[in-house]
Design goal:
137 residues; alpha+beta; Alpha-Beta Plaits; five-stranded mixed β-sheet; 5 strands; 30% strand; binds flavin mononucleotide
Length: 137
């Protein structure tokens, strides 16, 4: 099986109701069935998500997620074959908020705590998410 990693970010759609707990439970239930893993960061405004798994499964879930009206302005940053998973532990880990320690981590890699589509670099984003993941485990 080829292993693929997909990274995107998006913005919460303020016109839609969002229950993050319900969302993450759906992610975990569906992803576990398809051997998908990853991490979802939500800071109250932006989502950053990494999905890892078989190419067909990653592609299919991304297309489903992209149609979800709970978020908008979806920017696909990377979709590439990889040798191993960076986030093998959770069917979908949830990291919420950008205060305190998380903000410190974020500012290690980015000059401001605004996620700017023009300036964000995918490798830095993955570094941040790996540090967030280390906080979770
Ligand atoms: C930011 C965001 C991330 C999501 N990530 C996933 C995911 O990793 N896996 C998943 O199955 N659904 C994810 N969803 C939900 C899907 O868009 C869709 O609602 C869900 O897969 C439908 O599942 P259901 O048919 O079991 O209700 C995400 C939605 C949003 C807004």
């Amino acid at each position: 099986m080829n292993l693929t990693r997909l990274v995107y970010y998006s913005q919460r759609n303020p016109s839609e109701t969002l229950n993050v707990q319900d969302l993450i439970e759906t992610c975990q239930r569906n992803n576990a069935r398809q051997n998908l893993t990853g991490i979802l960061h939500y800071n109250g405004d932006h989502f950053l998500q990494v999905l890892e798994g078989g190419r067909a499964e990653v592609s299919a879930i991304y297309h489903r997620i992209a149609r979800d009206t709970r978020h908008v302005n979806i920017i696909l940053m990377e979709c590439t074959d990889v040798r191993e998973r960076m986030f093998p532990v959770w069917s979908m880990g949830l990291h919420e908020g950008l205060e305190g320690r998380s903000r410190e981590i974020f500012l290690r890699y980015f000059a401001t705590d605004e996620v700017n589509p023009e300036t964000v670099n995918v490798d830095s984003l993955l570094d941040v998410l790996q540090d967030f993941a280390a906080e979770l485990s």
